[in-house]
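Task card 7
Instruction: Convert sequence to structure tokens.
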Amino acid sequence: MLTPQSIIAVIGGGTMGAGIAQVAAQAGHRVRIYDIHPGAAARAIDAIATALSARVAKGKMTASEKHDVESRLNTAQSISELADAALVIEAAAEQIDIKQAIFRELAAVCSAEAIFASNTSSISITAIASGVEQPQRVAGLHFFNPAPVMKLVEVVSGLETSPAVLESLTGLAMRWGKQPVHCHSTPGFIVNRVARPFYAEAWRALEEQVAPAGVIDAALRDCGGFPMGPLALTDLIGQDVNFAVTCSVFNGFWQERRFLPSLIQQELVFGKRLGKKTGQGVYRWPLNESLPYLPAEPGESDAQEIQHHGFAAWLNNHDSGDSVTYSYLELDDVLVQMTQGETATQLAKSLQRPVVLLDLVNDWQSSPLVVLAAAASNTVVQTAKAIRFFQQQGKQVLMISDYPGMLVWRTVAMLANEATDAAQKGVASEEDIDTAMRLGVNYPHGPLAWGAELGWQQVLRLLENLQKHYGEERYRPTSLLRQRTLLETQHEH
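Output:
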């Protein structure tokens, strides 16, 4: 059992190691930090002291509390100095041979009761534990950056991890003020696996020149309700780090096409345009992007004859069932409806009328903008009717190329699809998957709850239309998603 008196050791004095050590020391543990590089552990303690000083300055901690936390932090000069630790958390380089060597050394010096945890974000816990004599005491304890701030901790079990070890780590995480979720060791665990489409769909839109990077990010941020656009986020994470995780997940799943890495991102990494840390990535930093909002359209709005069916409820996402399927808005001869995965041009051709498609809006009241795409066969005047209508609702309008599934809807559909795959394969419970995505990457909803709210039929239709359009496996709906759709249909009848 891990108690507040247990000594905690942290291996690795980088950002994550220092953050984890700070969390443990603030929770009352004596902490030892070891790093193979001379001086790195001492620098980690200095970094923690600076972070604690900032807390004191903001009134979140007293000077005496800061002193107490610092008094519990010590450096270790060798792994043998970690012998009395009840828990060792490894936060070293993301290379399996390094991690296996560390755990072999630990097994030789620590007591048989000591628990070994890895903060790896994508390496198999089973593989890391395979070199240890008692693999049942090895687990994953994956914190998110910055560790003192982020609530989520993924507690990861390898094939041999004992239930008692998982219970100890889960209890410890809760005492440390964290929200633990449990998952089995598969590539990317929960968050780094389920989040892949958030980046992948943005890179694809950029590759296909659907819209400039700033428009793609604005759509996901301001319409989708995500805290940051995916491309700006990869710049912040570091293009090298984000690309490495994508490649790791892609290769971990035997080149599954859903996880296909981006050639544009690879070019940025080759060119050392790594984002904020190098001053340039997708964007130049500091960020100063102006968006190509459309100027207010002149014209007599009152002359437009407006007919709608379930439109307000549909925009607000308070409706999910059959009525959503038929929600539309008619402005004179122009049909406006939310994307269902077909292009506007395709729809205009089958309906023999002008069409403007609208992207998903998470919260109609709070979103400052809408994203539209028009059929190639529309006249400028026809498309302008839709633009003017939304401007009169107080929205900024961004136009993108006629792109199936648009930007937000296809991303949300792919996130929901990935989450159903993880649930179906027993990676984690549905509740833990949704909790992980809300707390680990601050999504506005868990992807499974979001899929249910939008309606699984809608998600399925959009993915099937994308699959048909591209002729690719990438958009293949999962078996669980199809089952959910059938259940939804039964409930309606």
